[in-house]
Each structure stands twice: as structure tokens, then as C-alpha cells.
Write a structure and sequence with these properties.
Blueprint (H helix, E strand, L loop, with lengths): L1 E15 L5 E26 L2 E6 L5 E12 L7 E6 L2 E6 L1 H5 L1 H4 L1 E2 L4 E3 L4 E6 L4 E9 L3 E3 L5 E3 L1 H4 L15 E5 L1
Length: about 180
């Protein structure tokens, strides 16, 4: 099933260290996914040889949004930035990324992809970080107790063997290359 992807950068003015009020912008990029039928999404954050994955807790829908946020750790005393993507998080040190995430990252999202395909969204080359997702048609998933879900074993069998843990019933995990 086709899935369209659109990206939009957003900024929020943030004040730190009151009462000095050192104002700066914090950036996020929102990826809007749309499909002709309901889908569920797995978010992937690859950093070095590890891929951190998480089944998104949202109800299945025809339109979903995944967000990547770039939050400076301590604005005045550190160049560290927390990169948060759909429940996954990693911290890096990068003055350019801290100042403006648009200058240190590249949106690689295609305008359209397919369900069951790993689709890259954003790349941070200086840190070998890639944000991606896999969309699954509702029929390829199974509802679990307490609002959880998993990918049906039959659907995972059609993916690479490396992605088999996505059908484990766990809601998140880490794949090692």
C-alpha cells in the first residue's frame, strides 16, 4: 500500500536561565504520513551499529505524524543536544546542531513509499544517525492487551531476518548490526 510522506521544520523560542532570559530556538521536524487505509508505524533510530526501534502507541490511522526534536542539554554550558524521535532518544555533542538542526541534518524522506519498507526520513552525517520508519497495514498487525500491538508473524516473515524482533510482542528494543 502506498504511504505519502511530507516534512516540515518547526521552531519554538525557549528561554533559559531566568531571569537572564537567554532566548534561543529549539527545532523539530514533523513527518506527516498518509495512506489510503489505516496503518501502524514502527520508528527506527540508527546510531552507529545499533538500531533502536519502537512500535508507536497511536491508534491505527490513515494519517500519522512522527516528530524529531533537537533539545540542547544545557544551553549556556554545553554543546550537547538530545535527539528525540518518536520515543527513541540519543545525545550527541555538536555546536552546529545545537544552534540550528537544519544546518546539521538532511531530510532524506521520499514523497512516497510502501508499507513494509524501511523508509529513511532524516540523516545526521556527522554522527552517523539515521531516523526512519516502517508502516504496516492494519491487517499486518495484531492487537494486544492494554492498547499494545505487534506485527503479525506472517508479515515479519516477509521482511529481513534482522527485523524478526519486531514481532516479539515487545513495544521497543535495540537491534545490533
Amino acid at each position: 500500500m502506498p504511504v505519502t510522506v511530507a516534512a516540515e521544520w518547526r521552531s519554538t523560542p525557549v528561554t533559559t536561565d531566568p531571569p537572564r532570559r537567554a532566548e534561543h530556538l529549539e527545532w523539530e521536524v514533523a513527518f506527516r504520513l498518509a495512506a489510503p487505509a489505516e496503518v501502524r508505524v514502527v520508528a527506527l533510530l540508527t546510531h552507529g551499529g545499533e538500531t533502536h526501534w519502537g512500535l508507536q502507541p497511536d491508534e491505527p490511522a490513515r494519517e500519522l505524524e512522527l516528530r524529531a526534536r533537537f533539545s540542547p542539554w544545557r544551553w549556556r554550558t554545553s554543546e550537547s543536544v538530545a535527539i528525540q524521535f518518536a520515543g527513541r532518544r540519543v545525545r550527541v555533542t555538536d555546536a552546529v546542531l545545537k544552534r540550528d538542526a537544519r544546518d546539521a541534518s538532511t531530510i532524506v524522506a521520499p514523497q512516497q513509499t510502501e508499507t513494509r519498507a524501511i523508509t529513511g526520513l532524516l540523516h545526521l552525517p556527522a554522527h552517523v544517525i539515521t531516523l526512519a520508519f516502517i508502516a504496516f497495514a492494519l491487517d499486518d498487525t495484531e492487537a494486544r492487551p492494554l492498547g499494545r500491538w505487534r506485527i503479525a508473524p506472517a508479515a515479519v516473515a516477509q521482511l529481513s531476518e534482522r527485523l524478526a524482533p519486531l514481532a516479539s510482542g515487545y513495544q521497543s528494543g535495540t537491534l545490533i548490526a
